[in-house]
DNA sequence: ATGTAC
């Protein structure tokens, strides 16, 4: 299990608005001549400055051509995966379990720890966390009146999952910050994880290359399990926060300020909306974190986001494949320096490969991604 | 991203 703790000096911005996404701004020049953009159902929200791997664009295009797919959107953090990450895909008649992947319900929960900023002792918390090693080692009993399908409730898992203590760096809109319950003098806790092995197990049971016919018994059974995974993923994030605070001696319960899911299927009036690494722009404020060396943004999306299937990026997005990270930056760090960040935060993680795989260098610049989301509207205006 | 096998 990967347990990454970024302590102190991480900051939350409150962005007043995201750009008004009102026109298709495609950056698919690589495909010039290959298809007529006007007739394609594939949109990439990016800009010339926003570097994107060719493989990711190829994957997005392939997804957009699956039977039943009405529209496929790539967000500015799009990067290749088994299926491309940073996508929103609308289909009719067919449901594709693999388009949302194995970690069904994965998302971000932002909590107020109730701990005052001036009471925060970084070194003390770091030692305490290093002593426990893994969240699996902190016992937690299921408080819900439903059998828990997750083997270890309140654990983060691996990959890009993390728990991070943060505090507000800058507020752009005091009123909005107040209504969201963001307090500048408090330590916040951002938890990114999902349904662990449960989502994986669901995918393995329902995955078929041709997808599931909407309305079929299989599709209904998948949706029931999917909804259960979403429910338990939220509980898993909460349980992780509860365990952490209890372990660190926090007196109060973590208070949930915001929660968003970025791997899930939503039934909309237009069809089945598959989100893989993209978050809804229609459910209030969203948290968009960067890599562990950068800031996290709390954003209030604008209303007119139909062009991106009402979706936003869920983070900075990978720039380097996990497998190549260690060899690229191995020499740059020693045992201690890889565990510190440019924001003077500390990283607690016992898995060396994971520390390198999730290094800030492996990620895009989150400000770049935020810039595309914001600029997208500024340069366009008008209505869709 | 995951659990398990190598």
TrEMBL record:
It catalyses: a 3'-end 3'-phospho-ribonucleotide-RNA + a 5'-end dephospho-ribonucleoside-RNA + GTP = a ribonucleotidyl-ribonucleotide-RNA + GMP + diphosphate. One of its GO terms (biological process) is RNA repair. It comes from the Bacteria. Its EC number is 6.5.1.8. Pfam families: RtcB. Mn(2+) 1 binds at residue 161. InterPro entries: RtcB (IPR001233), RtcB-like_sf (IPR036025), RtcB2 (IPR017510). Binds 2 manganese ions per subunit. Keywords: GTP-binding, Ligase, Manganese, Metal-binding, Nucleotide-binding, RNA repair. GO terms for molecular function: GTP binding; metal ion binding; RNA ligase (ATP) activity; RNA ligase (GTP) activity. The active site is at residue 314. Its cofactor is Mn(2+). Mn(2+) 2 binds at residues 192, 262. The keyword Ligase applies. The keyword GTP-binding applies. It is an enzyme of class 6 (ligase). Signal peptide: none annotated. GMP binds at residues 160-164, 262-263, 314-317. This is 3'-phosphate/5'-hydroxy nucleic acid ligase.
């Amino acid at each position: 299990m990967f347990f990454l703790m970024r302590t102190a000096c991480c900051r939350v911005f409150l962005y007043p608005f995201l750009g008004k996404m009102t026109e298709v701004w495609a950056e698919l020049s690589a495909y010039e001549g290959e298809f007529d953009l006007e007739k394609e159902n594939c949109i990439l929200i990016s800009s010339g400055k926003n570097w994107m791997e060719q493989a990711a664009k190829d994957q997005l295009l392939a997804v957009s051509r699956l039977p039943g797919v009405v529209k496929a959107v790539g967000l500015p953090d799009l990067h290749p995966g088994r299926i491309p990450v940073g996508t929103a895909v609308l289909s009719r008649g067919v449901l594709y379990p693999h388009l949302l992947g194995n970690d069904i319900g994965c998302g971000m929960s932002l909590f107020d720890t109730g701990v005052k900023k001036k009471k925060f002792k970084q070194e003390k918390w770091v030692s305490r966390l290093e002593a426990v090693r893994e969240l699996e080692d902190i016992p937690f009993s299921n408080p819900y009146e439903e059998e828990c399908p997750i083997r270890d409730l309140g654990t983060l898992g691996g990959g890009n999952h993390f728990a991070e203590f943060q505090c507000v760096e800058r507020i752009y809109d005091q009123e909005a910050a107040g209504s969201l319950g963001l307090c500048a003098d408090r330590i916040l806790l951002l938890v990114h994880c999902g349904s662990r092995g449960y989502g994986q197990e669901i995918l393995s049971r329902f995955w078929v290359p041709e997808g599931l016919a909407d309305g079929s018994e299989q599709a209904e059974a998948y949706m029931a399990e999917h909804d259960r995974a979403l429910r338990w993923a939220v509980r898993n994030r909460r349980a992780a926060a509860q365990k952490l605070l209890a372990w660190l001696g926090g007196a109060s319960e973590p208070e949930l300020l915001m929660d968003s899911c970025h791997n899930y299927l939503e039934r909309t009036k237009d069809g089945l909306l598959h989100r893989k690494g993209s978050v809804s722009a229609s459910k209030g404020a969203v948290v968009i974190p960067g890599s562990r060396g950068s800031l996290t943004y709390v954003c209030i999306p604008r209303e007119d986001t139909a062009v991106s299937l009402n979706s936003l990026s869920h983070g900075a997005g990978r720039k380097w494949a996990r497998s190549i990270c260690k060899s690229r930056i191995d020499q740059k760090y020693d045992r201690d320096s890889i565990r510190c960040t440019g924001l003077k935060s500390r990283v607690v993680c016992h898995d060396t490969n994971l520390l390198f795989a999730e290094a800030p260098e492996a990620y895009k610049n989150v400000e770049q991604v935020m810039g595309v989301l914001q600029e997208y509207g500024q340069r366009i205006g008008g209505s869709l």
